[in-house]
Each structure stands twice: as C-alpha cells, then as structure tokens.
Amino acid sequence: MARYDDRDDHDDVHYTSLDSPVGPLLLTADPSGALTSLSVPGQKGGRTPRPEWRHTPGLFREAERQLAAYFAGELKEFHLRFRTNGTAFRERVWAALDSVPYGATTTYGDIAARAGASRAAVRAVGGAIGANPLLIVRPCHRVIGADGSLTGYAGGLDRKVLLLTMEGALQSS
User: Fold this and answer.
1) Contact in structure between 138 and 97 (CB atoms under 8 Å)
2) Rg of the chain taking only CA atoms, in angstroms
3) Residues carrying an active site annotation
4) In sequence order, what DSSP letters do the residues of 17-48 get, joined into one string?
5) pLDDT tens string 75-91
6) Number of helices followed by number of strands (H, E) in the chain
7) For a 10 Å CB count at each end of the chain, is N or C smaller?
C-alpha cells in the first residue's frame, strides 16, 4: 500500500475545501487523486493548507459528489480511493471502522475485537481511532462507549451528534 506521512509535506499535496452541514471540510489527496485526509476546523490533529500545497478542486469531484450524496441521506457507503499512513495496528483498527455500517454504532471493545486486539488494548484502539485521518469517510463517529455514552470525537462531540442523528443512529432531541 502506498503511504503518506502527514509530518512530511514535501510530497505533492493537493487540496480543496467544501462546505457541509458539519462545517467546512478540508480534503487532501496525492497527485493521483487518492484521498489522504478529510478534516474539519478545530479538529484534534487536523490539517491546515500550506503555501506549497496545490489547490486543485477538480481532483476532488468524486469525493465532493459522494459527500453531497451522504449529507443528503442518499449515500450509505463511500467508494473512494484513499491512502493513509498508519502503523500496522492503526491500519487494522481503521479497517475495522470501515466495517461499521451506516446508521449503526459500535463500541471501542468491539473495534478492538474486529482488529484482532485484546480487550486490554481498548485504550490503544481509542488512540488509533482518534488518529483517523479520514473523518466521515472512515466512520469513527459511529464508535461509542461501552455504556452507550458519546465519548470523544476528533471533530468535536457536536459534530458526532449531528452525524449520528443524520444517520438515524440517535434520536434528535
């Protein structure tokens, strides 16, 4: 799998910004158009455009189309090319996130089990989920506490509530 390292931005980074119901989205991609990150303002570990990045909105047409369909309630599963750079453990956790269906929630313990990690690794699983570079597209917002509580979300709990409500996993209040 090709790799991308957020700390090493000498690669040819392309980006665009999109408006959404959860606020502005910043998307980055490699030159082939593979999505490397999707973040929101104020996100823990989020990205900010750099002067050497290339603003190329045309490269993101398919991602923009799919995101618009998702927010309109017409798309339940993303089909986008992406490249992420994580340890083998993080990649297993992120793959487990990909298996959580639209409109459902799961727990950190369940993600640990799906990733082949022990129950004792739940804290490490939480760290891997928090480092997910592809908010929304890789549905880390669908992970909740074992007691049903809406625990941390790198994009903020208000966004997590909005996404889960939009998907029907939470009742609107």
Assistant:
1) yes
2) 16
3) 140
4) EE--TTS-EEEEE-TT--EEEEE-TT-TT---
5) 999 999 999 989 999 99
6) 5, 6
7) C
